[in-house]
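Our preliminary data section would be incomplete without showing what the modeling component actually yields. Below, a chain of 514 amino acids is followed by its predicted structure, encoded as tokens that our downstream tools consume directly.
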Amino acid sequence: MFRLTFKRFSLLLETSSQANLTENPPHILAIRHYQNDEKEIQDINFCYVNGKNPINIYPLFEQYVLVSYVHANDTSDNTTFMDRGMVIDWNGNILSIIDFGPSYLFPNSTTWEPNELIVNNIVTRNGFLRLSRVRRTNNFEWKQYGRFNDGSFSLLQNDTFTTDSTDLTNFQVTVLQTLDNGYAVIYSKTLFASTRIYALKLKFNEKTAIKFNLYELTQPNTTFIGLFCSVDYVYVGHLCIASVANNEYGNFHVDTTYPRKDSNNLEINCNKINITFHDPVSFADGNLSIYHISNQGDFLRQIINSKNCINCIAQDNVVTLDVYDSTFNEPGAKYYIQMDNKFVQNSIYDEAILGIDPYMWTFRTANVDISQSSSYAGDIRGVVRLTKSGTQYFQAMSKSERDAFITALLNELTVRIPTEKGRLSSNGHYQLDTTVESQILISFSINKAKNSEKFLSTLVSKYLNQLIENGAYTGISTGTTTIYLDYIYGFQLTQSISDFFEMHKIEFILLIVA
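Predicted structure:
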């Protein structure tokens, strides 16, 4: 601790570079000092202690100001520290000095920490309430102070209350004035299976307090990190805002999920995910979106809308959702799931429940070898169909633009499946589908898997068809070229004569032998 002593103080007024639109000189408040020496407010008040300032200033009413501070008989002995308050007027005259009592020391130690909460009565001339911890305990003491006609203040009523909590690091407390000229002490209490906010109602100049449960969260391990209360100046009554520490999902309504956050062993082609909430829920109207995180960016894998979801179940506090085979199809890949606000609602109160932000619920699929043997897994030929608007867009292009469109389409599909670059190719052929009202068919091939490639061509074909057929709910709907694909048509296989004989050569051999 150090002290700076100034022999002279000067004030320099700078001319603003901005125009003074009011044409009036600025108002400068006068600087005053209280009429006393340094023996009352000692140097120990001018150093932060655990991020708290020992000296605080509170406006009371009219020209009266309360300065709270610490006074010690021996500044090197924390056990002599006493909390005090000095009431002064704007001229620096001391009207009264209030002895608040011993300063707070932590239990079983001499460690000092300043702490107090002071709030004026709603009728400011009635005085104020002070709340502080009781030395070397986990208890709190409140004191009501009233004003005499000479401007001095004295104690009216006081009492203590216990928090039943030994861990005050997770404890929040505040005080507020009430509309009936009284006060209230609001504090949190963590129980085994819930967390509650209590109110201690104090009438003016009365010692008896009324305690009641103000709010309760019915989930375990919830920590309030902030508590603010005041008179509600818009509506009638009082307003309290409680801040809750984020759980691992950033949503204290969520208990757990499958797959678990940060897990790395989700089964390939997993068809179901679930979310367990703390309270019973029902479906509302929002989206749950699954994204694949890759070096090229985040790619949408699937959207589930809670209003029109098929085979989705909300039973009590658990939501179970179906997902496509193609959604989690890549080994060792990283994903995240984002849930909109109002995807579900509290089934008791019909209140929308907050969602899950991006990157909060992340996980990986199991890094396993998915290569498999097959009697036939060669090249596969097939066609996709453009929508009517896609056909019009395609026909308006030049030949070079059409070639570029097909190349871009194959590149986007490669990423959406996902598969290795070069697995999809096209001979550039396209034609009108005469079975419908003039829509373009585009042909391309899925090349057979090489030794280092993950998916067999048959699996690539399956994923591709599933992605397109469900295009409204997959990343197909977000691509610049894939958005023009006809969801009804999907990806349909075609065969050349050599393909047909290759797949049915055993039947032909048996027929010849016969």
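Residues 399-416 form the longest helix (18 residues). The helical segments are 388-395, 399-416, 457-469, 497-503, 505-513. Preliminary results of this kind motivate Aim 1 of the renewal.
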